[in-house]
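Problem 12. The chain below contains 164 residues. Write out its predicted structure in C-alpha cell notation.
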Amino acid sequence: MKSAQQNTLGFLLHDASRLMRRRFEARGAVHGLSSSQWRALVYLARTGGLAQARLAEFLEVEPISVSRLVDRMEQGGWVRRSPDPQDRRVRLVHATEKAMSAFEEVKALAGEMYEEALAGIDPAQRAALMAGLSQVVANLQEMDCAPACGRMAREEGDEDERAK
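Solution.
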C-alpha cells in the first residue's frame, strides 16, 4: 500500500510518466527505437529538422549524448544529417521518410495508450485534468524564467535610462 507521501503531486506525476513510458516502449518496440529516439523523432517531425545542439536542448541531454543517439538513428535509417547552409560548423538532423511513416503509426499507438490511461475518467474530468496540468507546466516555466526574465527586464530598464 502506498503511503500518503507517495500520493503527492510529484510522486503521482512521476509514476504516471514512468508507467506511460514503460507501456509505450513495450508497444513501440516493434519499430526498434528507444523512447529517447522516439522523442527525438517527435521534435524532428514537428520542426522539419534541427541542429544537434538544439535537439539536445529539447531532449534535455548533453550534446555528446545526442550525437550518439543520432549516430544510432542514422545507422538505422531514421534520420539524416546535412550541413547547415547558414553555418558550416552546424549539422542539421532531419527525419527520413522511414521515420515519418513510422511516426504516424506511433502517433496512433500513443493515442490508444492515452485512451487506456484515461479510461474511467469522464470528458469533463479529462478537460479539467488537462487544464490543471497545463497550468502546472505554465507556472513552472514561469518560475524557471523568473530570475532570468527579471534580470533581462532590469537590464533593458538600465539601457532605457542610459538612452535618456
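Discussion. The beta strands are 50-51, 79-83, 91-95. Students who got a different answer should revisit the alignment rule from Section 12.3.
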